[in-house]
Design brief:
Layout: H1 12-24, H2 35-44, H3 49-65, H4 67-70, H5 78-86, E1 89-91, E2 101-105, H6 117-132, H7 137-140, E3 143-148, H8 154-159, H9 162-175, E4 180-186, H10 193-201, H11 205-209, E5 211-213, H12 219-225, H13 242-255, H14 257-262
Parallel strand pairs: 2-3, 3-4, 4-5
Antiparallel strand pairs: 1-2
Helix pairs in contact: 3-9, 5-13
């Protein structure tokens, strides 16, 4: 069945080679073995088998090393429920005109005194995993991320240590089977550039070139860069109230709780 997923016959050899690699290394890691996920890693690496092997290894290695992000993924825990009610990570319900998934990250919506950055990231990655679950667009057309910095404070900035930033950047460009088309920062005060520059220090040149800080009001950005049909009313769009989108993803993670918990097994084997 796997071979039927190839974009064309020229990719069959890559698919078969990658499948054999997964079989041969199955004792070293517990990995996804469904056709869709396997093909996502190949697609995002343009069917370069060696790159796909490295990305899949990195994917499992990070999930093993970063238990604070990937373990105990229970959306019904009180601390997670509170974060999902706030809505820090919100993929829009449809793709844009270029087929890309658009995600609004309200990275300063939480209270740093109440929420650890590990739980904020965990909540975001749970929704990201769910958004990517059946969506081929992320590995073909990519993701456009919008970081809404409204309400940013020194306490928010202090949560973003160089270690956290390095791990996040590695997840984006080295682990997840997705193509990042743009990272857009809006409503960002000047001093946020200090944090963004730390992010850039861990990025490759391609991702650096796709990281954009939009000065001034975010109104023009949302009017010109994102289809209005996708955006919640609070961002100038026609897709209904923002609360509807928050409720949608909160319900989605709750309904998919068993699947999210099962993802904890995908890690490198313990020696």
């Amino acid at each position: 069945m796997l071979l039927l997923l190839a974009l064309d016959k020229s990719h069959n050899c890559s698919l078969l080679e990658f499948l054999l690699f997964l079989i041969e290394t199955s004792a070293q890691r517990s990995h996804f073995n469904d056709d869709f996920t396997i093909q996502r890693f190949l697609r995002v690496c343009k069917f370069d088998v060696e790159r796909a092997k490295k990305k899949m290894y990195n994917y499992h290695a990070q999930r093993t090393a970063s238990a604070d992000w990937f373990a105990n993924r229970d959306p019904l825990l009180p601390e997670m429920q509170n974060l999902f009610e706030l809505g820090p990570f919100l993929p829009l319900k449809d793709v844009d005109d270029d087929g890309r998934i658009v995600v609004i990250l309200r990275v300063c919506i939480h209270n740093p005194a109440q929420h650890s950055i590990a739980n904020v990231i965990k909540a975001g990655l749970m929704i990201l995993d769910l958004a990517l679950k059946d969506h081929v667009s992320a590995s073909v057309y990519g993701i456009s991320a919008i970081f809404d910095m409204t309400g940013v404070s020194l306490d928010h900035a202090l949560q973003m240590t160089p270690s956290v930033i390095k791990r996040l950047t590695h997840a984006w460009q080295g682990c997840y089977p997705l193509r990042i088309q743009s990272l857009n920062f809006v409503n960002a005060p000047v001093y946020v550039n200090l944090v963004i520059n730390i992010f850039k220090s861990f990025m490759d040149e391609k991702l650096k070139s796709r990281t954009l800080v939009h000065k001034g009001s975010s109104k023009e950005f949302f009017e010109t860069k994102v289809p209005q049909r996708l955006l919640p009313e609070e961002y100038g769009g026609s897709a209904g109230p923002l609360q509807n989108l928050i409720n949608y993803w909160k319900s989605a993670v709750e309904e998919n709780s068993p699947w999210l918990k099962s993802g904890e097994q995908y890690r490198l084997a313990t020696p």
